[in-house]
Amino acid sequence: MDVPLELSSYTRVLKLASTPDREEFSQVALIAGAGILLVGLMGFTIFVVMNALPP
């Protein structure tokens, strides 16, 4: 485990990284929110179906 080599690769990645602009951030947030809602809806649907079935 070569620590100086790892640190230099981390700094290289951080130099290449840039902050997203407002449009890109809002698009990513919208897609992530839609994914969260979809997973929650699927979970709720499974919950309702499991409660509707007779024991």
Automatic annotation (TrEMBL):
InterPro entries: Prot_translocase_SecE_dom_sf, Translocase_Sec61-g. Keywords: Membrane, Transmembrane, Transmembrane helix. The chain crosses the membrane at residues 28-53. SUPFAM superfamilies: Preprotein translocase SecE subunit (SSF103456). NCBIfam families: PRK09400.1-6, secE_euk_arch. This is Protein translocase SEC61 complex subunit gamma. It comes from Halospeciosus flavus.
